[in-house]
Amino acid sequence: MNKLLELRERCNLTQEELAEKSGISVRTIQRLEAGQTPKGYTLKALAVALAVDEAVLSEFSKAPEVSRLKWCKIINFCSLPLMLLPPLNVLVPLAIIFGKKQDSLLARKLISLQIIWTLVAVFLFFTVLMLNDWLGVKSQYTMLIPIGWLLVGVVMIVNNAFEMAKKESPRILPNLILF
Description:
- With 179 residues, the chain is mainly α.
- It folds into 2 domains: 3-58, lambda repressor-like DNA-binding domains (434 Repressor (Amino-terminal Domain)), CATH 1.10.260.40; 63-166, no CATH class.
- It is 68% helix and 0% strand.
- The chain is built from 9 helices and no strands.
- Helix 6 packs antiparallel against helix 9 (144-166).
């Protein structure tokens, strides 16, 4: 049951009575009870009319959480093709987070994962260069180091995608937050 509907019924109010008490139109109350999230003046007016804290009303809809999870899936998957260009696998998801205002703990974990992966990838790239050029190690297997790390990144992204698909509060590995 919708939180607004539950609060309204607990106060023994009809939609018309709540509209009159809050100064909000009946149509707006109907939309909110159908799942739309109250914001700004509407949120404040309803909180006053129902004698509850605004936080109670701002949390009543799960739709924003579903939308946020959808954007986290997009952020996670957009890193996949950009892994070959390491700075972009961080910058493009960051642009999505800030452009779409999807800043959440889950999004921060995903970005942190990409930052760590990128730093290690750069380190491994320079390690392979040092092995080949400075130390004279001429082995056909040195190129397996960055290829292996690329595969580790792909596995992490796919694993995190499966976690987000099966749970409301997914467990992102590794569990680190850098910013």
